[in-house]
Amino acid sequence: MLTYLFLHLNKWKKRPFLYVLLFTFPLLATVILYPLLKNTADETAVPVAIVDQDDSGYSETILERIGNSERIRFTVMDESEAEEAVRKGSMEAAFVLEDGLESALNEGDVDDVITWIRADESLFDVYAKEAVGAEVMRLAMSARAGLRVEQEGGSFEEAFDYSEQYWEPEPLFQMSFSERSPENQAVEAPKLESWQVLIMQVFFLYGWVLAIFFLRAVQDDEREGRLQRIELVQQTKVNYFISHFLLFGIVGAGSFLLGTSGLFYITGTERELVLAWLGRGVVVMAVTLFVTWCLFMGAGRKRWVVPVLVLVALASFMLTVSDTGFTGLWPHCLLEKGG
Amino acid sequence: MNGFSLWRYEMRAAAKRPAPLFLSIILPLVILGLVFLVLQGFVEEGREPVEAAVVDEDDTFQTNALINQLSAEERLSQALNLIPMDEEQAEAAFENGELAGVMTIPEGFTASLMNGENDPIDVMTSADDPLDATMLEVLLDSGANYISASQSAVNTVYDLHIRDLPQDERSSRLQETIITYTLFALDRGDLFSEETVTTGASIGWEKHAYLAALITFLFLFLVMYQMLDGKKADGSMVMRWRMVDVTFVHWTVVKQLKWGLMTLAVLELLVWVVGRTDAAFTSSLTLHLSLLFTAVWVSAFAGFLYSMQVPPGLRFLFFFVVTIVGLLSAGAWVPSLYLPEWLSVEWSPYQLTYDGLRAGMLDEDERGHLFGLALWGVGLTSLSILIALGKEKRDAYISILTSE
Amino acid sequence: MIEFDQVSKKYRRKEVLEPFSLTIREGSAVGIVGPNGAGKSTFLKLVASLDRPTSGKVLFDGKPYEKVVRQVRSEIGYVPQDIALYEDLTVKEQIAFWRRLEKNKVDEDFLEKMVGMLRLDEVYDQRIDRLSGGWKRKVNLCIGLMRNPKICLLDEPTAGVDLAAKEDILAWLKQLHKEGRTLVYISHDWYELKALSDEFLLFAEKKPIFQGSQGEWLEKREELLGRYEDDRELRRILEFS
Q1: CB of B166 within 8 Å of any CB in chain A?
Q2: Which residues of C130-153 are buried (b: 16+ CB within 10 A; e: fewer)?
Q3: C156 in B contact zone (CB under 8 Å)
Q4: Best interface-test mutation with A: which of B156, B342, B355 has the largest number of A CBs within 10 A?
Q5: Which range of residues forms the domain containing residue C102?
Q6: Contact criterion met (CB < 8 Å) for C68 and B239
Q7: Same domain for B24 and B89?
């Protein structure tokens, strides 16, 4: 084993940059691309214009409160600007808080206090509508309570403030969501994010393909007559093949594990999850590489075997990720079930 | 011109050994096809209302109103089918995978709500059905805000007015308040008067999808093809070519030309096929020009990597990663409207490609991007020629420059 | 005439040829010998203009190579040590392909004669990858010399071929020399060297250490043997001559 390892290390030493880069590519890609992609994902939002025609206490409150909405980027504009922006497609929609909004709400009338300007192509502005609607409705309901109490001889302001305090520190009615697996409803299973699983699948594919390309070294040895020489010297080819199988495993699994560990580290994944997934990953990778090796040997180590194996690896990845695989036996499928 | 003979040989080799070209076309198409299937699955799944169970262990007037409020609201009821069940039924249905989630209203919930204590309602969502589970979360969350609003008002009126009423009146007044306020909150659609404007410049989702597919295919194709086709020639073969004055510069230029031509041909073919099958897809002079200039710069980029003598596998990885970042930043997948502003780089060739093809699809006369693309093409080509010249000069002689 | 004036060659930082000067006369047949790694192939590539010296100048009829590289390449035929052929073409296609590249430089009569002498017409329609090593060598030679060059550079043209093929090749090379062409070739075979060359060039320790006729070689041999006593490889070469 060490003899053959030395042989390959020597080869890799000749072009260290290339081989180190190939081996650590998943890790490097994670380190370089993760911050960029994370920032992009965090800051992706629907741009929406908001116009304050009322210029009242209520409208200011609304602007202030919707400013914290996730996934919606509100920009204050004047009406013509906003309409033009929607028309030009630089804003998904615009909401105009119409003049007289505060007095209408105080009178218990909520009809058409907001004009919602959208385009045929607008798609995600309904979320903004929900956000604006919820804030207006909150004020409207508080005003409504104030009105009612005032009718019964109490103070409008006092009742309004009383109603508003139900929102602090948390709104009155909340839902707490917990994700459970149908098979085991009792405990909340910690889970990787689906994108993390996808990246792991990509790294698995990469490691697998890298290992398959390593097989070309075996093909070269055979073609150039080195394998025959080894057979003559050692009386057997078994040692050669065992050593190369192990190296093949180290190349594939090493690159995969390096990239995956880097991903878990950089995303601060829980230890328990990391161990479970890495464990599963190692087992699935080992089985996959073993089967790949058997196919390679079984097919007589012919030249066409390498491209065919690469296609098999690609098929496993693509069919699993798109959920169209004909069977659950694809290595990527087995890896995914690890969660 | 012996460079032309090399070109002829390269083209003949492409015809005689079509596997690289074939694979570079088929694989991206398969990938895009699978992505399409997945997206279609999402869209179809999205059309069906999400099924969820509600287990009401409190069973009071308030909780009934609340369930009613969640399930009867117009927009919610289209997307969410909230089925009342008892605990065991819900558990069994969840286990069978029939439900995206189970919402449980605990006993004593009403009392805590009236006291102003905010005990949240537990909602268990299915880990096996992440899409529906997310949908359920969004729908219930938005409903929760309106319920909070009406319930805050109900509590206020109860505390400041109804509580002081005689015992026999209290209950009926409370129920009346709840009904009125709930109905009021349900009518939130009345808040808005809707106005639709027609957009001139927006590309629309269907065309965006076409463009995303076209542009993704384009890069996947070339990223693969330049790897499969770009193996370095054997040393002694290079010598033999050098003897007939065909240098590394010729190799670089010929490879680039070949890749550019193949890219253009494949793209034109694709556009033609799509145009034949879908009447909504219109092609225009701007589109063809954009395809041409795109082919010029992408092949120049591949040629540049070739001139740097980067090994094919590494070239693939590098080109692939740069392309992912480039296309993401250009808004080729997620429209740049939704992306953070710092991500978009106006002069990036990927951005220019997207803008050029977009203008082409909308049949706009705006052709400024073409100039940018041409600049990138010329720049990268010059750079790769210079690098190749440098290499040739280091290794041997450049007859065109020095010889009499 | 080709002159080397204080020429040296480095690959990256590794020196493969130390500074040296020599002249190759027109019409001579120079047989190059020397141990492996002495710089023979690099020297031949420098003559062929396929490599550029790190320092010094190579002159062709008194003019530096960079000024006349087109002329140099048009008058030189180079046969590489490796088989530089497109494997998927037949012999006929291979010849046609390279002939197109040579444009009008190819002398059809000469080519026909060469094909005949090397008996290539026997395998005209076979693909290169189906040919034996000897045939490949002959095709390799034919392609390298098809332009009817004034100067023929050959890097071990008979390495690994059978006797019949070797005979064909040597007969053809003799014929070329007889017609007045300059031959510069590398070989490890003294029989071949003696049969062909009127001048020997001995490379050792990264430079040429002897250039002269067969007679001069015999005179200098003992001295060289004494001087390079410790170099086993070189000693064997000298002894076998």
Answers
A1: no
A2: ebeebbbbbbbbbbbbbbbbebbb
A3: no
A4: B156
A5: 2-240
A6: no
A7: no
Indicate whether B94 and B6 sit together in one domain: no
The DSSP output letter for C241 is -
Q: Are residues B323 and B216 in the same domain?
A: yes
pLDDT of residue A339: 46
| CA distances, C164 to each of B232, C132, C134, C145 (Å) | 35, 13, 9, 20
pLDDT classification of B282: cutoffs 50, 70, 90: confident
B142–A contact, CB cutoff 8 A: yes
How many structural domains is chain A composed of?
2
Spatial distance between the Cα atoms of B58 and B203, rounded to a whole number of angstroms: 51
By Cβ distance, the residue of C51, C73, C76 closest to B399 is C73
| pLDDT, tens digit, 9 for 90 and up, residues A288-306 | 999 999 999 999 999 899 9
User: Are 3 or more Cβ–Cβ pairs between B and C shorter than 8 Å?
Assistant: yes
Q: Does C236 touch chain B (CB under 8 A)?
A: no
d(CA B321, nearest CA chain C) in Å: 31
**Residue, of B115 and B389, whose pLDDT is higher:** B389
Instruction: Look at chain B and report how many structural domains it folds into.
Output: 2
Q: Which residue has the tokens 């045939």?
A: C135
Residues of B in contact with C45 (CB under 8 A): 239
CB pairs under 8 A between B and C: 76
**pLDDT tens-digit readout, A213-223:** 999 999 988 88
Amino acid identity at A136? V
Instruction: Judge whether B314 lies within some domain.
Output: yes
Kindly identify which residue of chain B lies nearest to residue A324, measuring between CA atoms.
B34
- List, for residues B40-74, the tens digit of each pLDDT value: 877 776 667 788 898 988 888 778 877 776 776 66
pTM for the model: 0.84
The residues, any chain, with a CB within 8 Å of residue C81's CB and separated by 6 or more, are B236, C41, C155, C156, C159, C186
Question: What does the block give as tokens for C105?
Answer: 């430089």
